[in-house]
Every structure is written in C-alpha cells, then in structure tokens.
C-alpha cells in the first residue's frame, strides 16, 4: 500500500499538484496534514477521484469543516493523521507521541513544522513530509507492505 503524504501547502496549489503528478501516480491514498484548505484540500478530492484522499485541519485553515484528527488502518498499521499544532510539535514531539500511544497507533502523520521528519518515539513512528508550499517544497511517500514493513521516502518537489 502506497501513501503520498503532503502538508502545509499554504495556497501553493502548483507545487502540491506537482507532487501529486510526480509521486502520487501509484499511490493508493493521498494524505494532506493541514494548512491546505484554501482550496487545496478540495482540489485534491476533486482531482484525485481514483484515490482515497484524507485531509485534516491545520492552524491556518480558518473556518474549515475538516476534523483536527483522523485515524485510518492500513494493512495492520493504525495511523493517526493530524496537523500537530494542537500538540505543540514545534517544541516537542512528546505530547503527540503520548496521544498516539494512548490511541494504540503505530504511525503518526503530522505537519506544522515545515521540516521533514521520520523519528521513532517509543513504539510510534512519527512522519512529517515537510511543506509542499513554502521554502524548500517537499513531500513524502510511505509504503507499507503485507509483512508490516514501512518505507518512508522524503522527496523534493
């Protein structure tokens, strides 16, 4: 199962869709971890109808009807999807890690920091694709195989 992971597009539809075109063709799921509802989330949903698209609300998504957190199961992995601002991820990943452990999650997808990350805290793998809309645009692909192996690739856009 292949996932294209995006976050923090901040109105930059061009770079976000470039990531989808370059890296999302073989993806089964596209995830946007917030700060992308200035039309980007809706654009993904409308233009990637052949994929499962999951988007959450970020701190800049004023008035959004999206949820702050979503949970999905991919093969045998439970994944928490959030923006990260509610867990102070710019200062520490501890709070987010604790929440993921409470929810029995194996993986967390988050954004907010604009910095790519792939770290393990306790039993939780925490993956941030960086920002597909600012500075050095990036995204990530996450592949989960039937044996439960998780392969993460951070990619420049």
Tell me the count of domains. 1
Strand fraction equals: 25-35%
Shape: globular
Q: Please state the structural category.
A: alpha/beta
Helix % is: 10-25%
Overall average residue pLDDT: 95
Description:
With about 160 residues, the protein is of the alpha/beta class. It has a single domain (about 1-155), classed as Metallo-dependent phosphatases (Purple Acid Phosphatase, chain A, domain 2). It is about 20% helix and about 35% strand. The protein has helices at about 15-25, 40-45, 95-100, and strands at about 1-5, 30, 50-55, 70-75, 75-80, 105-110, 115-120, 125-130, 140-145, 150-155. The strands form 2 sheets. Strands 3-2-1-9-10 form a 5-stranded mixed β-sheet, with helices on one face. The protein has a 5-stranded mixed β-sheet with strand order 4-5-6-8-7, with helices on one face. A hairpin with a 2-residue loop joins strand 7 (about 115-120) and strand 8.
């Amino acid at each position: 199962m292949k996932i294209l992971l995006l976050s923090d597009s901040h109105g930059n539809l061009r770079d976000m869709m470039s990531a989808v075109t370059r890296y999302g063709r073989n993806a089964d799921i596209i995830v946007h971890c917030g700060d992308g509802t200035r039309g980007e989330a809706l654009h993904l949903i409308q233009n990637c109808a052949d994929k499962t698209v999951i988007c959450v609300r970020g701190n800049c998504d004023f008035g959004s009807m999206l949820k702050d957190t979503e949970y999905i199961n991919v093969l045998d992995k439970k994944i928490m999807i959030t923006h990260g601002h509610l867990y102070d991820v710019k200062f520490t990943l501890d709070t987010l890690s604790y929440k993921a452990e409470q929810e029995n999650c194996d993986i967390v997808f988050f954004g907010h920091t604009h910095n790519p990350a792939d770290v393990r805290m306790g039993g939780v793998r925490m993956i941030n694709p960086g920002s597909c809309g600012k500075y050095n645009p990036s995204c990530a692909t996450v592949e989960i195989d039937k044996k439960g192996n998780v392969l993460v690739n951070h990619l420049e856009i």
